[in-house]
Amino acid sequence: MATETRTTQGAPAPGGTSFSLSDPTFRAIVYQILVVGAVVLVGWFLISNTLDNLARRSIATGYSFLEREASFGIGESIIDYSPKDTYGRAFLVGVLNTLKVSVIGILLATVIGTLIGVARLSSNWLIAKLASTYVEIIRNIPPLLQLFFWYALVSDSLPPVRNALNPLPGVFLSQRGLWVPGLSHSPVWTMMAVAFAVAVVGTFALSRWAKGRQARTGQIFPMARAGLGLLIGLPLLAYILGGMPTALDMPKLTGFNFVGGKALSPEFFAILTGLTVYTSAFIAEVVRSGIVAVNWGQTEAARALGLPSGPTLRLVILPQALRVIVPPLTSQYLNLTKNSSLALAIGYPDLVSIANTTLNQTGQAIEGVTMIMGTYLTISLSISIFMNWYNKRIALVER
Fold first, then answer.
1. How far, CA to CA in Å, does 265 sit from each of 37, 70, 75, 175, 326?
2. Residue 119: which CATH number?
3. Within this chain, do residues 98 and 140 fall inside the same structural domain, yes or no?
4. What is the dihedral of CA 261, 267, 273, 279, to 10 degrees?
5. Claim to verify: residue 177 and residue 106 sit in the same structural domain
6. 320 within a domain of the structure (yes/no)
7. Does 241 share its domain with 350?
8. Residues 281-328: pLDDT tens digits?
9. Residue whose C-alpha is closest to residue 188's, from 243, 226, 229, 139
């Protein structure tokens, strides 16, 4: 006797297979195949049409232009660069400048946003109102307008280069930025950087060992002092072994600008300050909501144990609030990174600015745009992966 594979309502019985559109599973598969097919078809049409139009106009395609000489200068760069370098190196300079603004901005915005968020919950009426005013004003002003404000503030309030302020020997402040003495080129600085990286890895490994030791024996290892000793001691040891160089590269006025030393340009100051202030207001609300989400009983329990307000916030409230804070905090980090593209408006040579100059000179607009998109996508995915990893690490584990 054949086994019935369908119910009386026409739906497939458990374990049965139906190739009818009345079957929800089969219907879902068909719809997904149609959507994927439509996306592939539209993509193929756009790509083939673009390539055909480029060929008709005899416009070269590909990324070989990255090996050609750039022939344009860049105001500031982390690595050595000159107009004789390639477009590829110029693009790398833009990526590094974007990363510099993003990383420093994320760190500063996190610190300031956390302080403002905690201040909003302060029992002091004045502090709470000032923090609330900061958040409400900053969040409702467009970030581009804030960049213009900070840039104009620096450009209009400082004297020209010839009349630069000289508060300390070797320190000059003018419309061209802040110039300070820099370290002369020496292999010792590379040795110290490597030593610091080793110290960071060693501190992380030591922290893992200390936690395991405490879990096994209950003995607390002085991790703060040991970590600080590694982070300071290893670079200091490398400096001593390298001969302790003391030569400084002093800035000097030459023509219409300073040469030598290290400079903080008005453009970098404006983009960093604007993004930091703007994002910190949103992070403050994220931190405040995370703290409020922690049950008040946790605070009462900490006070019952005799913990002061500071340790209660640091050891009891914030660790629990992080589980609420981290997901929306990730979005703010991504927003800050993507908003760094506004640097084009104030002349800071970020990724978008340099790529825009490149595609204007070479005519490789599609390639330039895809490089910008690919770079921002890579940075954003990297931030998301790290924050998701951290979020899983601090999540509650149910047994």
1. 50, 23, 9, 9, 33
2. 1.10.3720.10
3. yes
4. -130
5. yes
6. yes
7. no
8. 999 999 999 888 888 888 788 888 888 877 888 788 888 888 889 999
9. 243
pLDDT digits (tens, 9 = 90+) for 202-216: 998 988 888 888 888
CA distance 92 to 89: 5
Query: 369 and 303 in one domain?
Result: yes
Contact 275, 339 (CB under 8 A): yes
Q: Are 264 and 72 in contact (CB under 8 A)?
A: no
CA-nearest of 347, 339, 349 to 278 is: 339
Please state the domain count of the chain: 2
- Domain span at residue 384 reads 87-182+263-394
Place of tokens 């144990």: 305
Cβ atoms 163, 174 nearer than 8 A: yes
Chain center to CA of 304? 40
Give the DSSP letter string of 48-95.
HHHHHHHHHTT---SSGGGGSB-----S--SS---TTSBHHHHHHHHH
For residue 166, what is the enclosing H or E element? strand 165-168
Contact 177, 264 (CB under 8 A): yes
What tokens were used for 262? 């290290």
Whether the Cβ atoms of residue 220 and residue 214 lie closer than 8 Å to each other: yes
Same domain, 96 and 120: yes
Query: How far, in Å, CA of 163 to CA of 168, rounded?
Result: 15
Query: Is the model's pLDDT at 159 over the cut of 50?
Result: yes
- CA 332 to CA 285: how far, in whole Å? 11
Q: Is residue 279 part of a domain?
A: yes
Residue ranges of alpha helices (H) inside 221-317 are 223-241, 266-293, 296-304, 309-311
Together in a domain, 242 and 370: no
pTM of this prediction exceeds 0.85: no
275 and 160 both lie in a single domain: yes
Closest CA to 361 of 91, 87, 94: 87
The strand pairing partners of 257, in sequence order, are 254
Q: Do 270 and 138 reside in the same domain of the chain?
A: yes
Chain-centroid distance of CA 162 in Å reads 36
